[in-house]
Amino acid sequence: MTQKNRSWWALIAFCTTTALVAAFSLAILFASASVAYAVGQSARSDQPSQGVVEGKAFSGVVTDAHCGARHQDSTKSPAECTKMCVRNGSRYVLVDGDKTYSLSGDGSQFGGFAGQRVSIAGTLDGETLRVDSIHAQQ
Length: 138
Known about the structure:
Number of strands: 5
Oligomer: single chain
Number of domains: 2
Number of helices: 3
CATH class of the largest domain: Mainly Beta
Radius of gyration: 31 Å
Shape: rod-shaped
């Protein structure tokens, strides 16, 4: 075999080896990423769901999303301020301590309880409370 032929065979062997090493490295990288993704999904599914909670009772104060628990207009009662904010585009919410739930249902029904402490039976879907029934607390 001549020197020229050996050079070509060495070049082909070098390129082939380099390509195989690169392919093997990429295969390991993608397999590791797939395993890491699967482990992350598994850990997320083991946590308690923040999904739908049905048939639970909630209590708190009916107010609006703009003002929340503290109404900025001191000349109006909380009920008047809540109704005014809703007329101006805000939505009704239930405030229970540091938690706030958007109320879903008959908006005219909520207006009658604006600014009052209430008990609500309904379904919680994320941060939205679908109201089945609402009653003023004594």
